Amino acid sequence: MPGATPPAARPAALAVAGPDVAEVTAVGRRERRGLATVIGAFAICPCHLPLTLALLGAALGGTAAGVFLREHIWLAGSVITLVWVAFTWRGLWLVRKGRSCPVPGAKGSGMGAWSRWRPGARQGR
Question: Model's pTM, two decimal places?
Answer without folding.
Answer: 0.54
